[in-house]
Amino acid sequence: MNHTVQTFFSPVNSGQPLNYEMLKEEHEVAVPGVPHNPAPPTETSVPNHVVWSLFNTLFMNPCCLGFIAFTYSMKSRDRKMVGDLTGAQAYASTAMCLNIWALILGILMTILLIVIPVLIIQAH
């Protein structure tokens, strides 16, 4: 049995065997939907406010602001998954503003629904 070890040589490095990184770069294939050079997640963390939007959707939901905020949160999440961080940040910012307004209006409505009946009962 004749076992021979075969090494691959590149004409560029003239006799030096190729290492894994060089082969990987040479045969790298772009995958659709994935950013070419993704940055580490710690640097590109874009909050999408999904939980906050869901909370505002389920409780009070004045003028459907919670539902609209939830929609923008989902759009932000989708943009982040595609790699469009600018779009994700824009949608997240809109979702945050809508969540703030939904929370403020929800708190005011809750207070009014408690205070007005109490005042009416005390007046009688």
Automatic annotation (TrEMBL):
Family: Belongs to the CD225/Dispanin family.
Biological source species: Gorilla gorilla gorilla (Western lowland gorilla)
Name of the protein this chain belongs to: Interferon induced transmembrane protein 3
Record localization: Membrane
TM annotation in the entry: 50-72, 100-121
Transmembrane helix as UniProt keyword: yes
Main location (coarse class): membrane
PANTHER family xrefs: INTERFERON INDUCED TRANSMEMBRANE PROTEIN 3 (PTHR13999:SF26), INTERFERON INDUCIBLE TRANSMEMBRANE PROTEIN (PTHR13999)
InterPro entries in the cross-refs: CD225/Dispanin_fam, IFITM_antiviral_protein
Stored Pfam families: CD225
Keyword annotations: Membrane, Transmembrane, Transmembrane helix
